[in-house]
Amino acid sequence: MTKRGRFITLEGGEGVGKSTNMQYVVAWLEAQGIEVVATREPGGTPRAEAMRQLLLDPAPDEWLHTDAELLLMFAARAQHLAEKILPALARGAWVVCDRFTDATYAYQGGGRGIPAERIEALEAFVQKGLTPDLTLLLDMPPSAAKQRLESRLRDQHTTRDRFEQEQTAFFQAVRDAYRARAAQSPERFALINADQSLAAVQSDIRDTLAGRATLWH
Ligand SMILES: Nc1ncnc2c1ncn2[C@@H]1O[C@H](COP(=O)(O)OP(=O)(O)O)[C@@H](O)[C@H]1O
Ligand SMILES: Cc1cn([C@H]2C[C@H](O)[C@@H](COP(=O)(O)OP(=O)(O)O)O2)c(=O)[nH]c1=O
């Protein structure tokens, strides 16, 4: 299948502002007259969202093997690609996705310690060469992001999912892995300083979207 639309992903640790800025990216692209499909991972389709439940369920007494976690992430991704992402790109829509495979390298790789080669093998199997055209990495120290997350948890009266229950060292490893990936592929990544006012973050995102020649040609 020939890919015609563009594929943009938002990445970063917990509470850095992905969901908030996702709406901004979608609105900005739509204002340019582009058809946008907004989605997220793990999830994005009913079956993949059912897998998300299994992945995020905090059930304290139930252990999930790290290999099972990794495979379930890619199982959800395979479903999401086949059912939603690839058909949208094929008809020319742009897909904006809240997290994708860089999250697997950051969380299952950096956080859980799974070797990158195993993730690469699954990526090749499931994605068959598809990678995002642009990845906005919202970057800030986990300690500052945690404060935002705590206020969100308070406001929305939600509980912590399996990942949100992890400790500081885990989130530091996730951030380090994300930054290392951005350094490896600077042509794909835009590193956005998320530790500034929302207006400043959105101004940086707008400049990135408008300025990436590879997106528009
Ligand atoms: N630049 C910012 N400055 C201050 N608060 C922010 C900023 N961006 C997002 N927030 C707030 O931080 C919380 C987490 O943002 P959210 O978009 O849900 O993050 P994520 O999806 O990355 O977990 C929300 O309450 C949001 O309103
Ligand atoms: C896509 C993906 C997500 N995840 C994790 C990261 C998040 O903790 C969780 C998804 O939760 P999400 O609600 O998207 O994150 P946030 O709390 O930042 O809004 O799944 C992985 O571990 N690997 C992956 O490949």
From TrEMBL:
<dbReference type="InterPro" id="IPR027417">
    <property type="entry name" value="P-loop_NTPase"/>
</dbReference>
<dbReference type="Pfam" id="PF02223">
    <property type="entry name" value="Thymidylate_kin"/>
</dbReference>
<dbReference type="GO" id="GO:0004798">
    <property type="term" value="F:dTMP kinase activity"/>
</dbReference>
<comment type="similarity">
    <text>Belongs to the thymidylate kinase family.</text>
</comment>
<feature type="binding site">
    <location>
        <begin position="12"/>
        <end position="19"/>
    </location>
    <ligand>
        <name>ATP</name>
    </ligand>
</feature>
<keyword id="KW-0545">Nucleotide biosynthesis</keyword>
<dbReference type="InterPro" id="IPR018094">
    <property type="entry name" value="Thymidylate_kinase"/>
</dbReference>
<dbReference type="InterPro" id="IPR039430">
    <property type="entry name" value="Thymidylate_kin-like_dom"/>
</dbReference>
<keyword id="KW-0067">ATP-binding</keyword>
<feature type="domain" description="Thymidylate kinase-like">
    <location>
        <begin position="10"/>
        <end position="205"/>
    </location>
</feature>
<keyword id="KW-0808">Transferase</keyword>
<comment type="function">
    <text>Phosphorylation of dTMP to form dTDP in both de novo and salvage pathways of dTTP synthesis.</text>
</comment>
<keyword id="KW-0418">Kinase</keyword>
<protein>
    <recommendedName>
        <fullName>Thymidylate kinase</fullName>
        <ecNumber>2.7.4.9</ecNumber>
    </recommendedName>
</protein>
<keyword id="KW-0547">Nucleotide-binding</keyword>
